Amino acid sequence: MYFVYIIQSINSPKQLYTGFSENIDNRLEEHNKGKSAHTNRFRPWKILYHCAFTDKKKASAFEKYLKTSSGIAFRNKRLI
Fold first, then answer.
1. Using an 8 Å Cβ cutoff, are 43 and 27 in contact?
2. In the structure, what pLDDT confidence band is assigned to residue 2 with cuts at 50, 70 and 90?
3. Contact partners, residue 60, CB within 8 Å, separation at least 6
4. d(CA 43, CA 28)
5. Which of 7, 30, 57, 66 is the most exposed place for a label (fewest CB within 10 A)?
6. Measured on CA atoms in the order 36, 76, 50, 20, is the torsion positive or negative?
7. What radius of gyration do the chain's Cα atoms show?
8. What CATH number is attached to the domain comprising 32?
9. Which helix (H) or strand (E) holds 73?
10. For the chain, what is the domain count?
């Protein structure tokens, strides 16, 4: 399975990050340990939303879409 996820900073709730992983639990642990330069500053994180795909290309495409301006609007209106 391939996961697209949205995490939220616990200390700065307006900070969100969208990502893609094959193991969502390990990836969240990496974010919380500071192993990602993009999320290190706003630790700790919690999972706000996730969805699973069986197709890696579809999961990757959905993650990329959620990072666009229209994807952010969709995320804010429909996912969180």
1. no
2. very high
3. 2, 20
4. 11
5. 57
6. negative
7. 12
8. 3.40.1440
9. helix 69-74
10. 1
Note down the domain range covering 18. 2-79
Cis peptide before 44 (omega within 30 of 0): yes
pLDDT in tens, 16-74: 999 999 999 999 999 999 999 999 999 999 999 999 999 999 999 999 999 999 999 99
- pTM for this prediction: 0.94
The helix or strand, by DSSP H or E, that contains position 17, with its residue range, turns out to be strand 16-21
Is 63 within 8 Å of 18 (Cβ atoms)?
yes
Report the candidate in 34, 35, 42 with the shortest Cα–Cα distance to residue 12.
42
